[in-house]
Here is the input.
Amino acid sequence: MKQLYEDLWVSTPELPAAQGEPELMMHGFLLRHLRGNLLISRVESLSDHQAIEDLGGVIRHYLTHWHEAGPGAQLLQSRFNSALYCHNRALGPISPWVEADDTFSQAEVHCGSFHVVPTPGHTPGSTSYLYASPHGKTYLFVGDTIMLTSEGWVTVLVPESNEADLKKSIEFYRALRPDVVLMGTTAGQLAWQEVTMRQWLSLLDEAENSPLDLRQRLLE
Here is the structure.
């Protein structure tokens, strides 16, 4: 785990097993919250699991979408007795890997200040998380809804994506004012990006107009 801010860490980049996507890297994040550490996205590395233990463990694990479920999620749940949260439309797809402790289907506030915001489109159960850190920055965890690649910002389309829902989610993002955007997957890039309001709106325009369409490739 690498520390990004006083209360936030990023996992060791994970290279997925999918052939033909050598640049793709997946990331997870540990957020130190007053009520206990929260984990967002996917963390498979056993060395990162040990780092999480050294940082005090984790009380809750939040998935941004079902692609983040894997053996590591079950190991984390067992090791730390942490509660797993996901959108209710991700419940079936994650079941081969891990059992959810609770689900949600609409915007909620957890632990008093951690905002759960469904943002469907990339998958039906895609969810973002917004947190205003007491240390001064507002973090937005976007999962795979938008991604930074070597060619710029993109939205990500997979076989279960819905382009109309994704457009609505991008429009919703325009009302938010994050200081840091944190991505579950990137293509040869860092997993986080600090933004001004102007940069945020500009990158959303770029992502919306630059879909990365993986649908045919993943069906082959």
